[in-house]
Design brief:
Helix content is about 5%, strand content about 35%. By secondary structure, it is mainly beta. The strands form three sheets. Strands 8-5-10-3-2-1-11 form a seven-stranded antiparallel beta sheet. It has a three-stranded antiparallel beta sheet with strand order 7-6-9, with no helix packed on it. A two-stranded antiparallel ribbon has the order 4-12. β1 and β2 form a beta hairpin.
Length: about 160
Amino acid sequence: MKNEIGDLQQFVANDSNAPAYWMFDILWVIKASGKQTGNAFSMIEQTMPYGSGPPPHFHADMEEMFYVMEGEITIWIEGKISRFTPGTFGLIPRKAVHYFKITSKENCRALNMYTPSGFEEGIIRNAEKAEQLTLPPKGLKFNGKDDMHVAVQMDVVDLLNT
């Protein structure tokens, strides 16, 4: 199919053929990359343990979306706190400062999408190929460069106790 972005080819991604990575304490499975979508979007299935989550940050040139399938994410977006439980979808506009924590005791599984694509390239560049579709081994060292968002220095709300 030809569109304004370029030629798109049909593809199907599943757990047996999607590239999987370990970074920080998260399993990242890239279900759709910019190369596959003409850079229109990327979609990453994440499995995250209790307490996981990034510091305050924003994405200068892309929107971020979450769809929670299992578990719970508590997210702070520009001063507003929301709980994302299974079936919840949320959009974070570009340049909106945000951070989150996994607040369910069980692992959280979520689809994390970006438009346009590009975030997945940071995972590919910085993460370790996952040996299996599980959380990374405890103590996995991060040897990359955290260049996938703009960090923001600020006081934070303890999302694990809200």
